[in-house]
Queue: 4 jobs
Job 1
Amino acid sequence: MENLAQEVMDKLKTWARVNSPWAIHFNSGSCNGCDIEILATFTPRYDVERFGIKLQGSPRHADVLVCTGPVTLQARDRLLRIYEQMPEPKFVVAVGSCGISGGVFQGCYNVVGDISEVIPVNVYIPGCPPRPEAIIHGIVELLKSLQK
Amino acid sequence: MEAKQKSEKFVVPIGPQHPALKEPGHFEFTVDGEIVTNATARLGFVHRGMEKGVEDRNWTQGLYLMERVCGICSHVHAMAYALGVEKLANIQAPPRAQAIRELVAELERIHSHLLWLGVAAHEGGFDTLFMFSWRDRETVMDLLETITGNRVNYSANVLGGVKIDINDAQKDALRRGMDFLEERTKHYLKVVTEDETFLGRTRKIGVMTYEEATLLGAIGPTGRASGVQRDVRVDSPYAGYPDFPVNIVTSVAGDLEARFVVRIKELYESYRLVREIVDHLPGGDLTVKVPRRIPEGEVISRVEAPRGELFYFMKSNGTDKPERIKVRTPSLCNWGSVLTTAIGHKLADMPMILAGIDPCFSCNDRMVMISGKKTETQVWDWEDLRQYGIEYYK
Amino acid sequence: MDTQELLQQALEIVKEWTIEVSQPEENRRDIYIDARDIKPAVKALLIDSHWGYLSAITGLDSPDYEIDEETKERKVDPQKGKLEVLYHFCNKAAIATLRVRLPYTDAEIDSICDMLPSASFYEREAMELIGVNFRNTPIADHLILPENWPAGVYPLRKAFKGLEKKTQG
């Protein structure tokens, strides 16, 4: 009986998470190109809020961390702290080529590069910057994988 | 008996959590009651080490790196760099290329000003204006994508010219786009100069006098809103500007309202320039050859970014890699002016004042330090400060 | 006044401290002065004559190289090199740059912030990236480098090749 209840709760949680993920956005040192495209997804033309994706302020209520940038040395600790403040289960989406390899900044002295050297990443969305459609697609892929 | 001064220090870490001001940073305000007596900002989160990085890349690779100093004003960075290299190599890009450079630069200015309008409106709680301006901004994003292939980081420049051309269909799209945006801009100007709630947060707020602006070296729309007649496109024309000149837009009020009005009026100038270039685009080649090794020398390349004067000092040692590239972005100058205008103002005015200079943290990672006595430090996040401002003026 | 007239005017204003003048581009004059004269020169140009505005301060590293006897590699000589600090003043299209040469072993110059508070950012950036000490500058904290950046390591000096231990994730 207990197992069944647990299963229902899990399905409900997944449903709620899948249909209304609360996301927070962190810029780890990006040129802002990716960030303005992420912001554009919340404006009328793309309007991700109608999918139930809500961008809000505190890591403590977030399911998904949307992270841009090549992780500068200053941003690294803050990124780690934000990730640690998020409750389980949590997911990370790296938006932009910088988060994959450092992008054009690879090798620069104040840059780590790959976000996964700091925190685990679930989805990488390449592009410099990726278009809003690509960002939405990446997030939807994440949500679909949660449903399984 | 002297009344004891109560001084509190508010630390406002700007989160990456903040959806509107997307760039990470950290402000500290010292207040005496309601009045700000000191202000500090800590940035450094976007410092990537590019001036050093470019010394390890050849001149062409450097172009792709400098384009990404800032995603909002990527074209002006690339253009300043390309113009500098061309000066060092003692060559001139062909007239058609220079005109196209100016065209893209003005389109970029349009997208940047509309972006800023939305963000600044959001800071004051005017979310409808934010949504409208960003929706309208999509028009110029589409135009940029149509002619360059990308919405952001257009990469139109190459050393020696441009890699994109404009055909008749694109010219028509540009004309239609400018017509649409001009109509919409009338509405923005009306809101900004007539809406009572808006004026309550902008008129006579954050005043910077002409003398202050001149001394502190305020530039761009921030300086022009205080009557300072500085615009690199007018003072030292480059690219296509000698043939397609711009009229300088200034105001005398020097307050926040003036900063809004100047940028909106600059939009009209940009629409006019885009139309003019489209109608009179010179024929000819798009590029001229640039050698791999750039002759020794030092040049200064200045352009007018949407936020003000962008300054590149470039030194070549005769090889295929730069010896030194120094970038001084406009927001650095304007931080100094914020320092002055913040002091003496209410804490509730801080979000709008900071947004009013159109700060680009990415362009420029600087610290604005404001000091003061502290008895107690409170930590707010940006959302708190923004809400505080909105509530205060209800 | 046209550009050349503006430049002549600037040269006239700082004549008494001028060591030499060069013309890297038509609209520019570089005026070499001694470090000790920076404050009077800036005062005369900017504060008294209102000639333009300070647009930027550039730091340059001009190292001396020595050849390592064993490896035959070219290395930066830590003693003999020079730094240069360039103060760029813009007036319409004219740019007058005050240039100061400083040896590595005495890389110090007076701050101009008491006359021009907004120069603080430029001085701080030069201090941490190229290693010039601006005496009496009001704020000497790091502007853009991380707080735990090793002291005495100046990224924009040619000798700097990257931090040894990168980041522990």
Note: Chain A is about 40% helix and 15% strand.
Job 2
Amino acid sequence: MRYEAVIGLEIHVQIDTQTKTFCRCSTAYGDQANSHTCPVCLGLPGALPVLNEEALRRAVIAGVALGCEVSGFSVFARKNYFYPDLPKSYQISQYELPLNVRGAVAIRDEHLHDKRIGITRAHLEEDAGKLMHDEDPRGPSYIDFNRCGVPLLEIVTEPDMRTSEEAYRFLTAVKEIMQYTGVSACSMEKGELRVDVNVSLREHGALELGVKQEIKNMNSFTNVKKAIDYEIIRQTHILRKGGVLSQETRLFDQGKNVTITMRTKEEAHDYRYFPDPDLVPVELDENFIQSMRETIPELPEKKRKRFVAQYGITLYDAETLCASAKLADYFEEAVQGYSQPKKIANWILSEFLKVLNEKNLEADQSPVTPLMLRELFTSMDGGEISGKIAKDVFNTMCSTGKTARSIIDEQGLRQVTDQESIEAVIDEVLSENQTVVLDVKGGKGKAYGFLVGQVMKKTEGRANPRLVNDLLRKRIERG
Amino acid sequence: MKLNEYTLEELRALLRKKEIKTRDIVKDIYAAVVDDSRNAFPLNAYISFDQEKIDLEEQHLQERISNIEETLLSGVPVAIKDIINVKGTFTTCASRILKEYRSPYDATAISFLRNHGGIPAGKLNMDEFAMGSTNESSAFGAVRNPHNREKIPGGSSGGAASAVAGNCAIAALCSDTGGSIRQPASMCGVFGIKPTYGRVSRYGLVAYASSFDQIGPITKTVKDAAILLQAVSGIDERDSTSARVEVPRFEESVGKSIRGMHVGVPEEYFGQGLDDEVRAQVEKGIKVLEDGGAHVKKISLAHTKYAIASYYLIATAEASSNLARFDGIRYGTRFIKTDDINELYRENRSLGFGDEVKRRILLGTFALSSGYYDAYYLKAQKARTLIRKEFEDAFAEVELIVSPVAPSAAWDIGEMVDDPLRMYLSDVYTAPINLAGLPAASVHCGKTQEGMPVGIQLIAHHFHEDTIFRAARVVEGAAS
């Protein structure tokens, strides 16, 4: 029997704000434990939450960018459960009336078909603190509340994905949207994007959903993929043997690449959600929602398609360029008024990205500005330097921040296009390599290349290669 | 006469004339508290009273405010129910679980109090986490009624009402969730007002039921309450439910005529269960208003019968969540040492909370549980909406509604400890007001034959505390 996997995701994205969701503590990452805390985020008796409007604004922007309807009326609810990293013993979240509902994000599936993944809801909530356990299992545990109260957007999808690859692509798309809109940097190392996965299997063609297994709290897309693949195999084995699955919450063990039971349905929490009486409902008018809509830049999906049409590059290249808004902007600025954007695209995708990766920089932090890159290309097109020299010049630009022109001038790299001086060098090379000349005449093509190389070497690569080629050929033919 | 026997208004005048200093008042209060503690049946109104610290607080305030005499409160000491955070003091909520807990910050009401020249002076006994109507659920022992020390003072602000009535405090700042200011004020023969929900910031008031809780004063006179309420009212950015409304000069309402005021008497508040003596005293109070020129008429509030059930479902639901933070992990008492997290939660909370608190947490947890939420919590919210609407309609016709505060005068200590349901029912006239978020006061209007005080409840429309102050002064004048 063949089974089909049905996959839905719950994604927690940290919303970039200066201060926490319900108090004025800083959201700075990596500072001394508990240095960003106050009575509110520590849940001290009597403290009350007040909503950070910037967090709300960004959550609305995220909602619009995810194609959601933004609710004019939404309500914060308390999710009640006991855990030491949760100082109030409830998390302020949204339940019955979330901020954003009914959205969709487009991806390309493995057959390169467009596919829309439905978003059920995207709501605003607060993060919990962080537990740290002593290496000695009998030793103490510590709690850092710096992260406690940091704003999160919880994005819940429809069970629209069928393969781990689709899930991977969807996550990539969401991450790009969050980065484009400035809602979140989605730094995976800082845990700014965490994923819960729901996977169930059903017979191919069946309409009813199978019993779902939830895998919690993964902070790498690769792990999400591995966890889904593992679950599909595990569940297939059970079902093939005639076994029955019961609803479970599981964890991914990234050392062993397996999922393990965290709790069964019997142990599931009853969160006793109810509207938080400490907060008033969020009421947004259409003007506000519209003004947020207007702040949204062109999103990756649209940009990719435009790049293909406008610049004649491949969809694959457009995807790489548009993976980061900064890189896409860099590209567009560099090709402005330039007639061969594809050439610059190729350069960015090879040479430029290599340097960015090496130096761990964003496109806008590069010492080579888009204008400087375009100048390098005009120098190449005008025959001032060869493509080979251009690579060296570019590397020097990257390390010094100087323009192509000044590097060419300083290092005397301008191509030698003066016929007489090249001919003089050719004569010198021929007289020094008479046996090779004989080989050439005997029909050895390789030997000819050697002579060209010698001329280039003597001119320190500055001779125009085409000119060298022409002159050398004529000279040898003349005998 | 000792200074602890004066009213706030009188002491303010003396302070303004520089005839006395705050520390003179504090000294006399302290002497009275110490003296009372030697009584075979002490009032037990305070959980903590640190004279040295209060003097120091005064000194600090003198340094911060140059002419403290010119402020609204001029340096009068005000006792604080032990559920309101005062920086540096113990805030125990009369619970074992917070027995050693010291507040690291001031409640907004306390900041406002200080800004107006008030000195927080002593933390008052109460029912544990303000859950109770008798002040018997305190982990620090029951409070006695100064009018008869074998009787309860009412609750949950029993310590406040007892201290003010027994001249162990000039005035007190308390909280009212379902009657916790008005009922003890009535039983101890003092004045107490629960302002409109949102009038006083709740920031720093330890939450029992967030959508009901309000801070308000218990005082010797109506005028004192007007002064104190004005000091602590106002907009607070730290409380999302704080009302964005101006604070009127309440003091100026006290003494204004009530001629032509339309007063409603809801028949549902005078039905079965109301003690005859209480009824007689309240009717006497209504007569006083009529004599003062008010137009009194009967009205109906038919949904009153749903109030107690709704109140005890919503309030306990909120409480079950509000009190979840008391786990002994980050602060408060930790009763055991264990490496099992569930055992730690279980033991801390089992040993930390008293019976009444546990009962309400269990009730509220049940009301919110999946499968029961719609039938209990949601239905109670619907009833709440109806009750609120009914009051709205009534206030289209009248400016003031009057009723008893409690079905009976103070009863004997121990009488109801094994009958929580009967105790809950005694909130029948006060809890509906909190459901609707209205302002209401208890003003003393007479005594039973046994000599126990009886108050009359005056209820006004949202943010019309001034109406209450006007009427309350008239009743007060007739009773004295």
Note: Residues 297-411 of chain A form one domain.
Job 3
Amino acid sequence: MLSPVPIGSLAAPERHLKRGATLKHDVHTWQETAVWHPEPDGRGLFLALGRKLNAVVLSHDCEIDKQKRLLAAPVLPMETITGDALEAVRNGKRYPFMPIPEIPGVLPESYVDLRGICFVERKLIDDASRLCSMSDDGIERLQAQLIAYFTHIPLSELRIPPTK
Amino acid sequence: MIDKFEAYLPIKWLEDGLVVVFPVRKPKAHRVVKRPGTLRIALSTAALAIGVSTVSLAAEPAGVSNFRALELSVAARSDEHVVPPHYWDNLIAAMREAPRLPAQTTKSDPPAAF
């Protein structure tokens, strides 16, 4: 669990950025434009919308040390929701939300929102503070949640014959 | 018919016609200025668009051949760091036989954070 991590995505309508003049101290300026202006390598800049918040890294341990981009999901405080939503999320009834108990002094009661999964540059992950780590049980719970969310298949019912 | 994992590979999508190509959607113009000669310009633009589409389709076979690079070599198939033979077939077969969780309503979901 990391904090704070910028989590977000391109917002509609698309708003592209075109490179402008370079100011003193090598400060770049960017001009908003409706036309896509990619750099020579095909990549370009556009405005994204998001938040800096707690996030859980979803990429597998084996990938974390090797990849420049990691998948992350936002972790939001449970106190922001009420009523039926609170009851459903807190009791793990909805596939996209995984409840996380309060960790005194570290994290309020929260939930992982799998609807907000996005990739984050490794540098930004490295710059964030590590709040806590999941136990093996927690990791298995998260994996089961991911499978339920993406496939609607209960992990406990999956019977895969051994591969020879 | 998707009956094996190989059927999910992009090359099979193209060979078996499993890819549905949607027409390119152009963003709406913010403002349309009407003046004499607009029809001729519009026709020229349409002709150009057709030309571009034709060029795109003509260029596709070259892209198709690139997908073959995604196939695992014989050496890679025996590498313990890639999935063993029939792994995906077995997994997909198991997934097909597994019961599904019930569909849920999103009616009372919390709002998206961004």
Note: Chain A has a mean pLDDT of 91.
Job 4
Amino acid sequence: MKQRGTLVVVAAICLGGCATGPWVKPYERGWLADPLMSVSRDPLSDKYLQHVHDVREGARGATVAEGGGCGCN
Amino acid sequence: MRMQLRTLVRALWLALAGLFAAPTRGALLPEDRVDLMYHYYNGGGTRVDGPALLVRKGIGERVSAYASYFVDNVSCASIDVVTTASPFKEKRQEYGGGVDYLYRNSTVGLSVQRSNEPDYVSSTVGATVAHEVFDGLTTISLGYNQSRAEVGKAHTDFSDHANRYQYKLGVSQVVTKSLLMNLNYETILEDGYLQSPYRSARLLGLSVPEVYPRTRDSHAVAFGMIQGLGSSDGQLRSSGYLRYRYFWDTWSIRAQTVELGYGTRLDERWLVEPRLRHYKQSAASFYADDFTTQMVFMARDRELSDFSNNALGVKASYLLFNNRFRLSRAALNFDYEFIRYHYNNFTDVRTGQLYEYKANVFQVFLSGWF
């Protein structure tokens, strides 16, 4: 019963979140469109640097870019 | 266990795909642009350089297509090569292409890529879906890549293959008008020949063939944030970012990556971005600098050893012009990164000391926006 109550509260919060408007209005998003705020501003350059790191490290994945090849150099 | 994981990942992927049935409006396609680059890497006895090209152009209002070409001219005399084989030169060429289709607040992308080396040829196909919700404040993205590589060995009949399946999930969130955060997860499932046919392990000081497991499952979770910083006149003048990634796999490698960067406009034309990167990892369970007994799996690949590296980089972009030659703007960019690698359990057999080296990475590229 307690679990069901918790579920109802969580669902209400989630649905309430859907009902409200955006907390950052469209006219406030000028900075967000600036290249300085881009996750990957130069895709070719980012892909190259990621390739440089990937072929020399054991870890990979969850990055903004990716490369190919055997990486055996 | 492996099948269960794959089934679980696929089920999760499909379940999240259900989110994309929600009402949509207003996403954007990537910018139309062209980049022409020369890149150069020199470190640890290896020199790699070559050109690269990326062209992306919209077709109508809903489709954006891109094509890329990348060349690595490799001149290799790395420690692996000089201690067990002869220095060599080779060329790698990579061709890529893709299409993105925009429908209301969703973007669907398809991509292909092929990489050719004399002894390694891989082909990759991929699909991505990105969807904006909450009036564009949240973007959820899913991705899947599948690749197959044919592995050979120069001057021999050796031939084998490797398969790779990548599943990606990402969430990007606008937190405030000057703060963006994102969270990404990626799992990579591999099977087949996952080692180099050239490298060897050491057993009591003698060279013996390396043997790797034929499967590897890896996972990475990354968190990032970008904070915009304004000047007194309310304009965005600079931004700072922080990224952290944790990686783990079934070969017992654990790795952490931290990146910190800062970008600022010096004036109307110059944009400068210094950055720092730190990486460290633990060794694979079947790695040893020098085995004392024969094992089922044996590796002495320094990329599977316990090591760390630190990198210091800077990118500088110079705005060449606006609205000329059918381009809305063009920029000349320079990027330099200095990396220092330090290995905790990989001996340079030439000196008997733990191995370390420095690398210089340089790019110069011209970017034009249509």
Note: The domain at 2-369 of chain B is CATH 2.40.160.40 (Porin).
